[in-house]
Amino acid sequence: MNIYGALEQGSIREGVLRTLMNLRDVILKTLNDHPYLLEYADEVRNAKLRVAEDFDYWIDRSMEVLEKRGCHVYLAENAEKARRIAGEMVGSGKTVVKAKSMVSEEIRLREYLQSLGNEVWETDLGEFIVQVADDRPMHMIVPALHYSEAQVMEILKKVGIHGRDAEELASGVREFMREKFLKADVGVSGCNAFSAETGRVFLVENEGNIRLSTSLPERYIALVSIEKILPDDDLALKSVFVQSAYVGTFPPAYININEKADSQEMHVIFLDNGRKTTEFREHLACIKCGRCQLECPVFQLAGSLWGGEVYGGPTGMVWTAITEEIPEVCFLSTLCGKCREVCPSDIDMPGMIRKMREIILKAR
Amino acid sequence: MIAPRLLSEILEKNMKKTENPLGLKNERINRWWTGEGIEKDGEWLFFTGMLYQLIPYMDSATRYLEKLETTKLQGVLTLSKIIPVPFSLIDSMVSHKMKKRSDRILKGIYRALMKSGVKVFYVPELDTYSGIILHDMGMERAFREHAETVAERLNDAGINRIVTADPHTAYALKILYPEYTGSDIQVKSYLELVRPFNAGSDGKFVIHDPCYYGRYLRISEKIRKVLDGFGVSYRDVKYSKNLTNCCGGPIESISPSVSWKIAELRIEELGKSGILTFCPICLMNLSRAGGDVSDFAEVIMP
Questions:
Q1: What SS3 class is residue A271?
Q2: Other C-beta atoms within 10 Å of A304: how many?
Q3: ipTM score for this prediction
Q4: Which of A217, A266, A267, B229 could be stapled to A187 by a disulfide with Cβ–Cβ 3.0 to 4.6 Å?
């Protein structure tokens, strides 16, 4: 489906507006009750931009810390290299449980591991629905927001999960997933924030699936895009607080701080994929909370279908420009500035979209 | 979506020809001041930026482009580089009523400034389109050249204070011109200069803040004070002031259908009746989506 299909269908619009309605007031109340989160957001933005100015230094430092702690560490310049590294670690004939991660979408990790003959399961409820439906995440944090309960009911029947309401379906998915967790050979996660001080991977969640995905399997792969590197634990923790606040789930049910455990083999893949050399460097301060997506009028109509292959919405325009190519649909932005207004990192997305247009037109 | 390259070529050509994006001669569309007894000298130059005057024509052009957006014809036109918008035809399709309404709004703003004691004057030859669509389209060189021409003209005429009629022109002149041309002319929106007078306004309104006033120029609170001063009865919706939602207008030419759907979204929140706004683009787009929209100048029309 393209943008015009989305306009006609209306389910994306309903889903985005419903999610916005559910989360908006919670987010505003959180920020009002915990004003220090705004200061954290500033600190995180500044730290990320500082790291982005000297990625080589911070990557070296991070890799060194991880190696000292007994982790296997890799640096992938692009999506293909990252996929291959992960593929070599997983091999074939394995069961892999995955935490939801946009960076893993970016490198098409699930599809690649499946093509090697592995059974790969998304363990986040929304992402699992998207996987079973053979769809794409419609929002960074709420990937299945465009489905109604009735649609989810139909989708989950494909994998033998039945239920009369959301609660029964969720319980069915939990049962289905429990078996996968127990037999999983490899666990894969992304990373919300990485501490270069200690080599810790910070992950925030509400379902508990990340904890199980990353702690039960004997082999754990963490996929860390380089803009997630922060100088220390303090900033990494602040970053996940800010993300959770701007998603509307503060305080989060779970904050996982993953590091090398004695009983587990831990692999960390750092991914560049256009980040080091991008001219849209300011966007590397994005914490991928997806708040700008929900507030954007074009996203409200078309979801992530307004974007590139993976990322959509205002933040997705820029992430697509960084990791794929500048999407021509950036001309559909109204430049209304709402994205920047609600962004915890005050990122000038309208300014960058104007810049993208300039580049596209210059290439004519 | 209309092909961006095609649209940019049309815009550039039209801007070079007539200094406005539709290729219409300013002296033909800029008639609001005739018979108005305008001052030729004063403290604040009234600069309309032609946006209100262009609205009736943009409305027709958009209706035409909407048909083109979803047909395969566009691809052919893109390849053949034939200008797909027959401007002469659009001219004949323009609503006389809309033209009169735009003129009336501009008269209203000018009179409101006069009545507020602002020493405002108007020089039709100095008034022209700001070029903001070039900036928004990423046509940086074209925007810079146009802005330099306009700024130089204003400078040569010894202008040092400008009062604008709409948020897009206000933003262009106040924020972009200093950056692109080094211009140091003081720029204010008329909403920052009018002082309340007995306007006899009645009716209850729901405010639609234009994005450029709400976010880019941040004058929503000032606007509320003006409304209070005039005794205008209004209410705010959840998404107002700096969090206002877009009317969809800025993409009306590149994608009339998406633009129209965005306007519908906004109308759902505002309701259809009694919408009050301060921007010609919002006025056109929200009206197009079925809203009963008034411009502030119509409400306080002296």
A1: strand
A2: 24
A3: 0.95
A4: A217
Residue ranges of domains in chain A, CATH in brackets: 3-34+278-362 (1.10.1060), 36-44+51-271 (3.40.50.10420)
B250 closest CB neighbour out of A335, A358, A360: A335
List B residues 214-253 in contact with A (Cβ-Cβ < 8 A).
Answer: 215-216, 242-243, 245-246, 248-251
Q: How is residue B178 written in tokens?
A: 């200093």
For residue B213, give the DSSP letter: I
State residue B73's pLDDT score.
62
Judge whether B4 is closer than 8 Å to chain A, CB to CB. Answer: yes
Q: Measured between CB atoms, does B79 come within 8 Å of chain A?
A: no
Decide if A359 and B138 are in contact by the 8 Å CB cutoff: yes
The C-alpha atoms of residue A207 and residue B184 are separated, in whole angstroms, by 56
Q: Percent of chain A at pLDDT above 70?
A: 100
Model pLDDT, residue A298: 98
Q: For residue range B152-164, list pLDDT tens digits in order.
A: 999 999 999 999 9
Q: Residue A364: what pLDDT?
A: 65
pTM confidence score: 0.96
Residue partners of A10: CB distance under 8 A and separation at least 6: none
Q: Six-digit token pair at B114? A: 């006069």
B211 and A CB contact within 8 Å:
yes
The answer to whether the CB atoms of B243 and A329 lie below 8 A apart is: no
pLDDT in tens, A113-157: 999 999 999 999 999 999 999 999 999 999 999 999 999 999 999
Residue B212 has pLDDT above 80, yes or no: yes
